[in-house]
């Protein structure tokens, strides 16, 4: 026993020593479970052959794609061999189940003479390939042949498998429509970091995005709105007789293509049709489904306060329409779950509606929260009859949870904690950590949006709250709402690098998280994004502005940085500062007499790395007021 302990200590010490040595060699996101580097490297040259023990179409497809990916930048056309003599990259499916790996894990051994990747399933091999690509020089991402690169992989032993089975991103395709091609691109980007769920928010007040053959108005009317450009909050509704020409939708054939493409990347598409609220596109397409029964148009921006985007729960026609919709959704999407939304229902419309009141009487419901619960429970039965399980946002807890519902906890962790207490499954997407539509650095350096979610905040998420049964937490998700995201380049900018942080949160063991190492890995990914033409936010280089009150009706401003090793310079003279301006030394700054604007910038190694951030004296006072509010 003592000897075993001694060996364990030596092994753990070796791993700890190894952790510092591997800093610049092993830049894998998400961080694997166990990494052990040794000296030397595997040189990828034309003598290398690809070998497999599997005859499956999945593995053969994987090998072909890997071969193509390698050939573009290296010019090396790796032959596929049937025996393992010589210098190989071998991809093997284990003949007997390797308990440690489950169905998504893999073991990777790289020596000077071979690369051996083993897994129980083709899924595991797929994730192992993503790791191999990240171990190769960044130029492996180049779209053309790149000379003068030594194509080598450091010698390493990796054992890897995910912490959670649900590792998702959500893309809101309603507020802005993104084409089929853009969704496929998003899937490609996600797969690199071992994400396995894409939640598509397919319907909201600003557009209906999926063909329902039995209800053609949904895409004839519901998918289109008037052309508007500008700030979300300023986008006016339609003028009289103004044509609705902006929008789009996926035909069922498009969606089948998206689903099949995703499946090859081991990503499941989760469809969301948001009801009973956020339903203006449906209500505009089939008038009479809301309590006021008014005719509305799909909106480009915010809906007005008197526009009822909520379905009437007292109206049987509503349930007939929903049955038609969810029949087609259930047939189209292989995912065992369907997301029904359930968030942010303005219950005042129900409270003033005779039909809803009648329903409450008949069903002995005491209040409008119970009416919402009635609605969700009925939706659960409807989905169950179609062989599907229900997911809803955490508002579905109000008035009593449907018996088998899974809760997506967005207004914090509390909804998830409560659902888990009731023994329900939970997917954690707490807004402050997971909402990719929030600001990612000072608002003066970012396109307009709201709130704040720094990269380090996303990285700090722990999806399993203290005292909660971790078996009930399926995993988590980063959610990109697109009210202020008008094009695909901005989708990328808002997603990366925060989705790198979340990928590590959802995949890697908690104890493997290391912010400094993560930051250096993110910088490695930035070089890859550049080669892949993926737009990303360099926001973690920007100075952070914090406002403090300093005495009677005055403010002071502190500056800091999210990452180590940056130097801040600042100005009060309205000029963009550079390294010849005063260096920030850590003490709060007050506005000198007559100065109205503070500007700041970061440098590293004599070069500007961040954008200039700024705040006016008035703005600082305003922020102090806001700080006492939600954010
Ligand atoms: C939500 O953000 N309303 C789910
Ligand atoms: Zn009603």
Structure description:
This protein is of the alpha/beta class. It has 18 helices and 26 strands. An eight-stranded parallel β-barrel has the order 8-9-14-15-16-17-18-19, surrounded by five helices. A seven-stranded mixed β-sheet has the order 1-7-5-6-4-2-3. Strands 22, 24, 25 and 26 form a four-stranded antiparallel β-sheet that branches. α2 packs parallel to α3 and α4 runs parallel beside α6. The longest helix has 20 residues, at 2-21. It is globular, with a radius of gyration of 27 Å. Bound molecules: acetamide and zinc ion. Acetamide (ACM) is lined by residues 343-344, 393, 410.
Notable characteristics:
single chain, 631 residues, disordered N terminus, alpha/beta, binds zinc ion, binds acetamide, 20% strand, 7-stranded mixed beta sheet, 8-stranded parallel barrel
- Give the distance, in angstroms, between the N- and C-terminal Cα atoms: 53 Å
Number of helices: 18
Q: Which sequence of strands runs across the widest sheet? A: 8-9-14-15-16-17-18-19
Radius of gyration: 27 Å
Structural class, from secondary structure content? alpha/beta
Extended strand count: 26
Query: What is the averaged pLDDT score?
Result: 94
**Uncertain residue segments:** 1-23
Q: Tell the overall outline.
A: globular
Give the oligomer, counting copies of the same chain as homo and different chains as hetero.
single chain
Helical amount among residues, as a percent range? 25-40%
Question: Which small-molecule species are bound to the chains here?
Answer: acetamide, zinc ion
The main sheet comes to: 8 strands, parallel, barrel
Amount of beta strand = 15-25%
């Amino acid at each position: 026993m003592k000897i075993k302990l001694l060996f364990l200590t030596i092994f753990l010490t070796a791993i700890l020593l190894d952790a510092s040595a591997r800093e610049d060699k092993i830049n894998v996101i998400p961080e694997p479970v166990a990494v052990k580097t040794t000296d030397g490297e595997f040189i990828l040259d034309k003598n290398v052959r690809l070998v497999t023990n599997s005859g499956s179409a999945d593995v053969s497809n994987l090998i072909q794609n890997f071969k193509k990916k390698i050939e573009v930048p290296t010019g090396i056309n790796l032959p596929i061999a049937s025996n393992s003599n010589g210098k190989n990259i071998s991809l093997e499916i284990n003949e007997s189940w390797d308990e440690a790996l489950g169905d998504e894990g893999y073991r990777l051994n790289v020596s000077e003479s071979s690369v051996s990747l083993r897994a129980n399933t083709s899924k595991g091999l797929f994730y192992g390939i993503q790791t191999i690509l990240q171990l190769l020089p960044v130029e492996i991402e180049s779209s053309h042949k790149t000379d003068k690169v030594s194509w080598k992989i450091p010698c390493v032993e990796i054992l890897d498998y995910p912490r959670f089975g649900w590792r998702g991103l959500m893309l809101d395709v309603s507020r802005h429509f993104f084409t089929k091609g853009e969704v496929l691109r998003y899937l490609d980007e996600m797969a690199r970091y071992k994400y396995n769920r894409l939640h598509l928010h397919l319907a909201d007040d600003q557009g209906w995005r999926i063909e329902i053959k039995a209800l053609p108005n949904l895409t004839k009317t519901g998918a289109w709105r008037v052309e508007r450009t500008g700030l979300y909050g300023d986008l006016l509704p339609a003028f009289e007789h103004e044509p609705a020409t902006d929008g789009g939708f996926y035909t069922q054939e498009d969606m089948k293509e998206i689903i099949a493409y995703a499946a090859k990347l081991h990503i499941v598409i989760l469809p969301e049709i948001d009801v009973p609220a956020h339903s203006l596109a449906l209500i505009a397409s089939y008038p009479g489904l809301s309590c006021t029964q008014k005719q509305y148009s799909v909106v480009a921006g915010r809906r007005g306060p008197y526009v009822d985007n909520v379905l009437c729960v007292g109206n049987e026609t509503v349930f007939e329409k929903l049955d038609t919709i969810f029949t087609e959704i259930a047939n189209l999407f292989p995912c065992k779950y369907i997301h029904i939304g359930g968030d942010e229902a303005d219950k005042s419309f129900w409270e003033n509606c005779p039909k809803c009141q009648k329903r409450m009487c008949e069903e002995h419901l005491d209040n409008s929260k119970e009416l919402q619960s009635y609605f969700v429970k009925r939706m659960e039965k409807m989905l169950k009859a179609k062989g599907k399980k229900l997911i809803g946002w955490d508002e579905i807890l109000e008035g009593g949870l449907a018996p088998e519902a899974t809760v997506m906890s967005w207004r914090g962790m509390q909804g998830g904690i409560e659902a888990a207490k009731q023994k329900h499954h939970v997917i954690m997407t707490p807004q402050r950590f997971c909402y990719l539509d929030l600001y990612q650095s000072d608002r003066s350096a970012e396109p307009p949006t709201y709130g704040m979610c720094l990269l380090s905040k996303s990285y700090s998420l722990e999806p399993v709250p203290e005292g909660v049964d971790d078996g009930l937490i399926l995993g988590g998700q980063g959610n990109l709402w697109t009210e202020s995201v008008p094009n695909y380049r901005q989708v990328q900018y808002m997603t990366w690098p925060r989705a790198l942080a979340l990928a590590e949160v959802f995949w890697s063991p908690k104890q493997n998280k290391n912010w400094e190492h993560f930051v250096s890995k993110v910088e490695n990914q930035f070089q890859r994004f550049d080669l892949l033409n993926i737009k990303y936010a360099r926001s973690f280089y920007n100075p952070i502005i914090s406002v403090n009150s300093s005495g009677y009706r005055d403010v002071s401003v502190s500056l800091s940085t999210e990452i180590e090793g940056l130097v801040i310079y600042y100005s009060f003279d309205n000029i963009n500062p550079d390294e010849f301006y005063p260096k920030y030394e850590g003490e709060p700054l007050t506005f000198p007499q007559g100065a109205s604007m503070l500007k700041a910038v970061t440098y590293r190694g004599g070069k500007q790395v961040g954008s200039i951030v700024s705040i006016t004296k008035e703005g600082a006072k305003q922020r102090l007021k806001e700080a006492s509010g939600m954010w």
